[in-house]
Amino acid sequence: MEKLKRHKESVSYAIAMAVLMLLLRWLEFKFIILQHQYEIYIGIIALFFLFFGIWIANKIVEPKVTTVVLEKEVRISDTPFVLNEKELSERKISKRELEVLTLMAEGMSNQEIAEHLFVSLNTIKTHSAKLFEKLEVKRRTQAIETAKKLQLLPGTLG
Predict the structure, then answer these.
(1) Tell me, what's the pLDDT at 14?
(2) 156 close to 75: Cβ distance less than 8 angstroms
(3) pLDDT digit string (tens) for 103-130?
(4) How many angstroms separate the CA atoms of 139 and 132, rounded?
(5) For the purposes of burial, counting CB atoms within 10 Å of the CB of 148, is it exposed (0-12), middle (13-18) or buried (19 or more)?
(6) Where are the domains of the chain?
(7) How far apart are the C-alpha atoms of 87 and 69, rounded to whole Å?
(8) What's the fold here for domain 76-157?
(9) pTM above 0.85, yes or no
(10) ∠ at Cα 143 (66, 102), nearest 5°?
(11) How far apart are CA 151 and CA 41, in angstroms?
């Protein structure tokens, strides 16, 4: 207790200085708030709209994933495949283009077809473009399906 009485004056000065420092910090904070109140309010509003916009964007753009299972009966013809020579000549499809079409139906990429036939990739692209034009399609899958329907390729029955 005696030690406390000796330092009573120092402790009271320390407490007074701490209170004055807190008062000065509070006044400084209040001065900053008053001087920059519009900027602070604008910043708070901007942050609110930022988070609100992010939330809205996530709600609008959220992918709506639905899984559809499609079962399709695949029938295979019992009769042997016979190439439709008439359709082949009417559409003026060359033997090389037919070969490219057959390899497409096997699932090969253009690069793989080019390597298999020992020709350049550009040659395969040219053959593909001419095939699409002659079969009146835009995609490989459409070309294969059309060729099966026209009996240019062996395939399944729909």
Answers:
(1) 83
(2) yes
(3) 998 889 999 999 999 999 999 999 999 9
(4) 7
(5) middle
(6) 2-61, 76-157
(7) 36
(8) Arc Repressor Mutant, subunit A (1.10.10)
(9) no
(10) 115
(11) 74
